[in-house]
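Q: Predict the assembly, please.
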Amino acid sequence: MEKRIRVLVAKPGLDGHDRGAKVVARALRDAGFEVIYTGLRQTPEQITEAALQEDVNVVAMSLLSGAHNTLFPKVVNMVRDKGMKDVLIIGGGVIPDADIPGLKEAGVSAVFTPGTPTASIIEFIKSNVK
Amino acid sequence: MANETLKAKMAEYTAKVEKVAAKNPERQNLAHNRLYTPLDLEGFDYERDLGFPGDYPFTRGVQPTMYRGRFWTMRMYAGFSTAEESNKRYRYLLESGGTGLSCAFDLPTQIGYDSDDPIAEGEIGKVGVAIDTLKDMEILFDQIDLGKVSTSMTINAPAAVLLAMYIAVAEKQGVPADKLNGTIQNDILKEYAARGTYIFPPKPSMRLITNIFEYCSKNVPSWNTISISGYHIREAGSTASQEIAFTIADGIAYVDAAIKAGLNVDDFAGRLSFFWNAHNNVLEEVAKFRASRRVWAKVMKERFGAKNPKSWMLRVHTQTAGSMLTAQQPDNNIVRVALQTAAAVMGGTQSLHTNSKDEALALPTEDSVRIALRTQQIVAYESGLADVVDPLGGSYYVEALTDKIEKECWDYIKKIDDLGGAVAAIEKGYIQKEIQESAYKWQMDVESKQRIIVGVNQFQIKEKAPEGLLRVDAAVGEFQKNKLAKVKAERDNAAVKAKLAALEEACKDENKNLMPLILDAVKVYASLGEICGVMRKVFGEYEAHVSL
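A: Predicted assembly structure:
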């Protein structure tokens, strides 16, 4: 049997708005992924640790507070430093278009902004996970 | 037997309509009936169910004349970056005809951390203004007469600290505490259920809240000591009925806690206020506002035996639904906000914040805030909606819907009572689960196009990237840290230590009211992080119940 894709859904920073994270987590689970949700206020260290412990294929971060430029790249660097070279890292939330190229350069593979159907996220993960 | 005739006519109409609908099918999945008639209001009793505005059960509003004498307070939520920047925005809003202030604090402030705490990195000044010490609060209200303006502060876990800072600033301006008007949100239960900016576990949090009730009833009598908030519950994805049901259940928990702490219900109930969301479905929202007033009046009179009519009134601030704004074609949001404004006004709100068109993308710019405020002014002065009290009262549809929402609300309250009240229901994850279910259903309805969102899943266009969005300068963090370091160097550190030690001792004694001690600490420039740190040490921190 093929191993199921494992996704860590994470809320970095202090932002408490997790409607999007939870809806995405549930949609991914309904699509057949194994989903671990970290809960709120996770530091980049905690997210990295969870990704390692849970041996995930994907880290999906959600942030609405505007701290994405600080926190997303931090998570990417820590995850890579821990040797998780193949883990797909994606982000979502209220993220200005102007910030997306910078985030991609920092190693976030895709950024999903408000109005994205969960189906697009599922499709993206299926096509890009290693 | 007029009803028999009407029933027969209704049957005739339905038969006819079904033939028409067979040829031209109606849209599917519509939430409400096709048509409402007196048949939907069986047993309706005007005096019992509606009464007159300003009278029990307040279905038609809490004041006898509503907006004919005075419009609702137009209170725009604002705050970003530093106290210096936010002070400019407040003064701009007051000069533009805003009639109250509403402060947004950044996340570190809301969770009780100073700007120099490592956990605050990247978050300083982002979703609101950063407040570390009384110094920031003095700057925030510079040249704003706190004796004249009313201020609402969206602050929950550290509400006691921010209220103390406000009282201290007023004192410096020469305004006594009994002349202060405003509201602190101070609603911790919805933080556990829907918004996430909690600090302490429920028990000490409830103590802080009842301490505030008691302190204010004696010292700051015109202050609204809590704004029991459905807004965030709705933003997290609940339905209209869930929004008011879970919020009123929270309200019951606060009143219970205060009575248990030895307070007399009529001494504090008149200062409880509520906070609703104005969502897209205009008439459902109007019915929700009306139903909520009726439920709360019954709760206060029948369940808690309050005697003062002021204790029975559900007074409400409203904000239009941020989660209904779209990043796509943001100008469309102006229309959404106008409809939501109409709903709030026809529903009888006492105060209103209208969101700006660009808020699905960033914090609003000065221009977009002005349009949002102008929307309220146009509804107030030009639309006629504010000329008549409860203009939709008597509409078959709105009355039937008011009854339906009220019934759904009571069903939830009973279920929550059976679980042991709102605190227990939240600890068991029940309320979170119900909200998540509704949020997921909404998303699936949008994806399957059973629910259309203009510009998102239909009527899309190719769009250029939006321009001119507000960005908070990354240098704010450093600026704020330096300011805090300066305050810490210049203040009387021995006094700070003494006041914090006294607070710590008081935290350990459940019978002590913490407000006077927090006020003492604030006045010697102890920081928010230091004060919350002391309370964290004694009270511990809340660990969320995570479930999907």
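Chain B touches chain A at residues 107-108, 110-111, 113, 119-123, 126-127, 191, 195-197, 235-237, 323, 326-328, 360-363, 436, 439-440, 443, 446-447, 453, 456-457, 465-466, 469, 471-472, 474, 544, 546, 548 (CB under 8 Å). The two ends of chain B are 53 Å apart (CA to CA).
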